[in-house]
Design goal:
The complex is a heterodimer of chains A (108) and B (115). Chain A has 108 residues and is mainly β. Chain A is 0% helix and 58% strand. With 115 residues, chain B is mainly β. Helix content of chain B is 0%, strand content 53%. Chain B has no helices and eleven strands. In chain B, the strands form two sheets. In chain B, strands 2, 4, 5, 6, 9, 10 and 11 form a seven-stranded mixed beta sheet that branches. Chain B has a four-stranded antiparallel beta sheet with strand order 1-3-8-7, with no helix packed on it. In chain B, a hairpin with a 5-residue loop joins strand 4 and strand 5. Classes of the chains: A mainly beta (108), B mainly beta (115).
């Protein structure tokens, strides 16, 4: 099956700093989603991005499908950005396969 | 964005009892819903795909007689953990797939503790 790798596994930032999270996947995919899991466990949809670049406020994402990776950029980080960021790819049967996540802590 | 609810948000039960978890898509119809399980500090693992009006498809290693799934309408899927045991304690999360794009939207999860 498709393998999804995320890096870094853990990240500590000072409030106001910028960061880049990476997601590599091992095969062609139908689509890709980025999520933020808050401390209560809720997964929040950040981006649905099969290819190209999208921006939403301080967050942006880029997927290069031909090279099998996606990047999530967080600018001017805030303490509320803390949590786990997951990348998930959609396989040929429309199932989502999740990476192991990046655990982010933003310190005030 | 699309909203998915889950009920209950947490449940504590004795070993041997059955627990039912409901997943509802509130503002869209979902032919397909998914059930995931997440252990502490781990990623989400797909348990089964729930299709409205037909039998669920279970992932390898997931006991279908243990985890009963019913998807009786386009907005409701239920997961019943039968004869729950302490090893079934986990965080169960459902998602619903938006039909045009196949984007998945997730419920807030149900934390199950079996004593």
């Amino acid at each position: 099956g498709i393998q999804v790798e995320q890096s870094p596994p853990d990240l500590i930032l000072q409030e106001g700093a910028n960061s880049t999270l990476r997601c590599n996947f091992s095969d062609s995919v139908n689509n890709l989603q980025w999520f933020h899991q808050n401390p209560w466990g809720q997964l929040i949809n950040l981006f649905y991005i099969p290819s190209g670049t999208k921006q939403n406020g301080r967050l942006s994402a880029t997927t290069v499908a031909t090279e099998r990776y996606s990047l999530l950029y967080i600018s001017s980080s805030q303490t509320t950005d803390s949590g786990v960021y997951f990348c998930a790819v959609m396989d040929s049967s429309y199932k989502l396969i999740f990476g192991s996540g990046t655990r982010l802590l933003v310190r005030p | 964005g699309a909203v998915v609810s889950q009920h209950p948000s947490w449940v504590i039960c004795k070993s041997g009892t059955s627990v039912k978890i409901e997943c509802r898509s509130l503002d869209f119809q979902a032919t397909t819903m998914f059930w995931y399980r997440q252990f502490p500090k781990q990623s989400l693992m797909l348990m089964a795909t729930s299709n409205e009006g037909s039998k669920a498809t279970y992932e390898q290693g997931v006991e279908k007689d243990k985890f009963l799934i019913n998807h009786a309408s386009l907005t409701l899927s239920t997961l019943t953990v039968t004869s729950a045991h302490p090893e079934d304690s986990s965080f169960y999360i459902c998602s619903a797939s938006e039909e045009e794009s196949n984007e998945q939207f997730f419920g807030p999860g149900t934390r199950l503790t079996v004593l």
